[in-house]
Amino acid sequence: MRVLNASVFKKNSVDVNAAIVGLVLAIILLPLRTLSSEPFITAIPVSLGLACLSYLVVRWQYDSATELPSISASLSKASTVAFVFGLGTLVLIAQQAHARTVPFLLLASALAAVILVQLFFVTDEAFSPGIVLAQILALSVVVRFASLYTTPGFVGVDSWTHITLYTQPIFESQSLDPLAEVKYYSAPLYHILVATTAQWLGVSLRDALFLSVGVVMTLFTVTIFGASRFFVGERWAVVAVALYAVADHVVRWGINIIPTSLGLVFFVAIVYYTIRMLSVPARLRDYGMMLFFSVAIIFTHQVSAFIALVLLGVATTVQLLFKFGHGQTIFGEQNRPVSEEAVDSWSLTAVTTLYAGILVVNWSVTPFADSTFIEFMPRLLEFTVSQSAGFLNLIDSSSPPSVATPSATGSMAQYVAYFDGMGYFILFFLTIVGSLVVLHLRSRREAGLVLVAVTAIMMVFTFLLPLFGIRTFIPSRWYAFMYAPMAIVGTLGLSYLAHRVTGRRIVVGLVIFALVFPGTMLMAQGATEDNPVFPDHNIRYAYTESELAAVYTAGEIDPAAGGLVYTDHPYKTVFPRSGSYEAETIRFAEDGSLATTGVIVYRPLQSDGATLFETGPDSSGTYDVPQSLLCPEDGEKFYDNGDVHMCRTPTTDG
């Protein structure tokens, strides 16, 4: 089993100084918990402090690398057999339940734990990277496609938009004219790929989406293996793949398949080639592949392209810092081993310059809000800063109307929120440890610092800017991208702890990690948009057969005589996006009375589940509203399929 040998570490203590600074910063940030109960605000300082403290303790008490204990060959074979049977059982559960239920997710988490235990404790002689990678991919396929094929229609909101409103007209017209007025006119790769697959295979657009982008989203995680191999051995590189494959937002974009999903695929490829060009001399093929994936991400998704620009900008900055000697001043001496080949110090500068040029040209011709994308976004950012910026200006739900009760209240709501974030907090802990290890390493230092720096900057866009009310950059889209460098650096931290801490403690710690991390990730809100584990607290972004039947029927019977129907969010989003009918969200007045008049579409989830209602011009919340208020049994009904009802509110004339 490959371990981190003490000879690869530098003699200076920049890592120790950084750990001390991190510990002090964590202590300074702890009082934020008195200002907000948001889990990420209260838990990140704790994770930061524990990681820095753990690193200091391990660094001082355990000064030599050790081997992990191993399991017998027979037990290793038995675990593989158990995995195969468990995977078959997983398929049967999804088939029988027609959904990814809690038993499905628990078994999937257990199978992921089996994979991690194999990676931690199987002997070198019995370990086969190919077999374990095949297990990870097989589990990824079942976890994602069980959602895709048991969910009627699509998962999410934007997937309906991109397939029904954009891709279908492209498929029917055999041209990009349907995108002429939207920003995807300059980023049509996702839509072209799905439409082309449907035409070539003779399948529906839904199946074409699953068989093209869906398959790629399942298999692309192996790219993490190649990127991790520049820092760790094969075993720990496979660990990085496992951590990334089960991460909640990576699973999210594997079931809610939109241009972000395809952009994520290209981004991870760019991460690999960035690390490669910082680690070994770049060849013409490397430049060609980097150019290919850079152009591909630009023509796929604007947010993904911006995130890639952040990565390349950070990589170029770090490379130039070391070229001109500033890196050595900041991080200590750069003792590159004699065995390492010289790397072109200008390689990424050329790539980043070309990428930025192509991006600017593309955004300059991208239509957006009666302007171009590159003109509109700075104005939007300026408006957001002037109107919404403010410390702790978070999105909060308003007080519930008197006729309704909040869907999620009390301590249980806090527990669910922490459960949803626990997987991230664990990965963040490992990433901090891994970042300190990067500062301590002598080899692959520039590449490691790029991953650490880009993670930190992504956290600014994901957490810090929203903390001040700036959400222009759509922070929820950044998580899956941020997980790529975090998985690599976090695995470096995990391997450091595993080979430094001795005795029973590390064995127990790794087993607990294998049991807890996959489960918290696979059952988190982001990974279960199709069928949340906590339906009273987390919104379901998928619909039943009867709910979709009501949507399509609305387009046939025209219940509002060409007007609007009113229902909850997100149910209201599927009406116009499916091409059926225009819909808006039900609103309550300040006194708690129902302020919506007209045709209401009621579904049981509005009375017993997490659905959003408006309580003012800029406020909303998840509430349980009784059916008797929204659609009483003795009221005027247009439609009733047993689950979904369309009725007119009593206060409406005619």
From TrEMBL:
The chain crosses the membrane at residues 16-32, 39-58, 78-95, 102-121, 127-146, 208-231, 251-275, 287-315, 346-365, 415-441, 448-468, 480-499, 506-524. Keywords: Membrane, Transmembrane, Transmembrane helix. This is Glycosyltransferase RgtA/B/C/D-like domain-containing protein.
